[in-house]
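Postdoc handover notes: sequence design on the structure in folder B. Input tokens:
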């Protein structure tokens, strides 16, 4: 069995709420509230959930683009939360991110060559000729042409810009790439091209992905295992086959029932959730999902369920399975 490349334990990210004349702290937004998982070498772990559930914040906290409030993140047996800025900078060539918005994540004043060669320069490739050659290689790897290196981002379509973002992420041969909704801003036809490209690159360069998305069909296409988040917490984590065929958590069941069925003759039973998502500023006591759960019991209102393994490689945080052990 391959070794875990990434181990996340008890990760939390709280944002201060400040109010009053003096701007004192009056509360917290619990964006990520105690999540744990591992990612094996060469694996694609999908993370899904509604907008605002904390999945993008979790991705950025893992890479320390924003500082975690608590918890540990181990990458190749190094605890990232204990490294200083210089140690972290040296390690960054092994961990990259592809951002959600291909329009906002590229500097409009820089040519594509400068955008992609910047990380090469930062991590020690001093020769301009070598950088130029590497940029041309990378552009061809992601399906663009070497002559496009002298162009600016506004001269490309959304799909091409995302390819530039992928080329930049690949520049220093990373081991781990966090993909923060990399196809959500793209047309469906372009989405499939980018997903296929990412799968090819995974096989070619032995990459490991944490793939964050809110589109369950996209995650099904690309992931090996899938974790489901709700209001800053992980509620279910298992292989994609188990998750899509036998979802255990009521929230996962509701999410999957909302996925459109391509065959118009297939009638699916929809699970309609009542009420709105609670605020991460003031999450409910006990299980965060109990206010909308069709199967909520009294214990759900008082006691937070443990995220535990109820079957082989199937983790769920739900009182319905609490006695399965």
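Designed sequence:
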């Amino acid at each position: 069995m391959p070794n875990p490349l990434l181990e996340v334990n008890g990760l939390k990210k709280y944002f201060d709420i400040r109010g009053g004349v003096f701007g004192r702290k009056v509360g917290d937004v619990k964006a990520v509230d105690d999540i744990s998982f591992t990612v094996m070498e060469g694996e694609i772990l999908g993370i899904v959930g509604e907008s605002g559930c904390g999945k993008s914040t979790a991705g950025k906290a893992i890479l320390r683009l924003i500082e975690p409030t608590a918890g540990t993140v181990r990458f190749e047996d190094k605890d990232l939360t204990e490294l200083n800025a210089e140690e972290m900078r040296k390690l960054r060539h092994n961990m990259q991110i592809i951002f959600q918005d291909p329009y906002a994540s590229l500097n409009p004043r820089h040519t594509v060559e400068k955008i992609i060669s910047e990380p090469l320069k930062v991590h020690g490739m001093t020769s301009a000729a070598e950088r130029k050659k590497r940029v041309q290689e990378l552009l061809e790897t992601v399906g663009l042409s070497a002559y496009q290196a002298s162009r600016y981002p506004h001269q490309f379509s959304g799909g091409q810009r995302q390819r530039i973002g992928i080329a930049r992420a690949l520049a220093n041969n990373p081991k781990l790439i966090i993909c923060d909704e990399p196809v959500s801003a793209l047309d469906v036809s372009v989405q499939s091209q980018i997903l296929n490209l990412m799968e090819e690159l995974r096989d070619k360069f032995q990459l490991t992905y944490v793939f964050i998305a809110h589109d369950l069909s996209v995650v099904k296409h690309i992931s090996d295992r899938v974790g489901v988040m709700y209001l800053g917490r992980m509620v279910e984590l298992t292989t994609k086959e188990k998750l899509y065929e036998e979802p255990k958590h009521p929230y996962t069941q509701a999410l999957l029932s909302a996925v459109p069925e391509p065959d118009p003759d297939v009638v699916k039973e929809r699970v309609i959730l009542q009420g709105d998502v609670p605020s991460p500023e003031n999450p409910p006591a006990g299980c965060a999902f109990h206010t909308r759960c069709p199967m909520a019991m009294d214990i759900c209102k008082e006691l937070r369920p443990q995220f535990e393994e109820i079957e082989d490689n199937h983790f769920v945080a739900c009182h319905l399975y609490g006695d399965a052990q």
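Context for whoever picks this up: Residues 122 and 222 are 31 Å apart (CA to CA). Don't rerun without checking with the PI first.
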